[in-house]
Each structure stands twice: as C-alpha cells, then as structure tokens.
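tool=predict chain=A
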Amino acid sequence: MRASAPEVYLSAMAKSESILKRIVSNPATFGGAPCVRDTRVKVESVLSLLAQGMSYDDLVQDFEISVEDIHACIAYAVLVIHGDTLESVEVQKT
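tool=predict ok
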C-alpha cells in the first residue's frame, strides 16, 4: 500500500530531528497561538503568507525565521489537520 502525501511529508520532516520543537505555545503571546520558537511569528501567519504566494526566501528575510521553521509550520498544520497529538509542542510558562 502506498503512503499518502501527508504521511510521506511527516516521515521526512516532522519525525526527523523533532522539527516540531521549533513550534511553541505561550499563553502570554497571542493567547497561546502556536508560534515559531524564540519569535512572535505565528504559525498561522506563515501558512497564510505561503498560501498567498510569498516565497520561502521572502519569509526568511522579512520575519527572520529559517527554512526549517517554515517546514515546522507546515508539519504542524499537517498534524493538526490529521488530528494527531502534538507532544513535541511545548507550552512556555509565563
């Protein structure tokens, strides 16, 4: 049986090197919305800008995040859509 696209993506990205550790949630920042670690850049914003056609290069330059951070945002979205648990996402205490 052939793996689905999300499974292949997760296998390659999210499961290698705990890429989801790049995504954190802090109740004091944007009401706990998931953000790229050590930034105030929401996962939702990265995904929205990608959907609007912004390039990886522009995201990296404009928001001072890495390509790996962008991949983590995509991997996070895939897991949320599939309803998987997100044990790699840490909640920062304020």
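The two ends are 46 Å apart (CA to CA). The chain has a mean pLDDT of 82.
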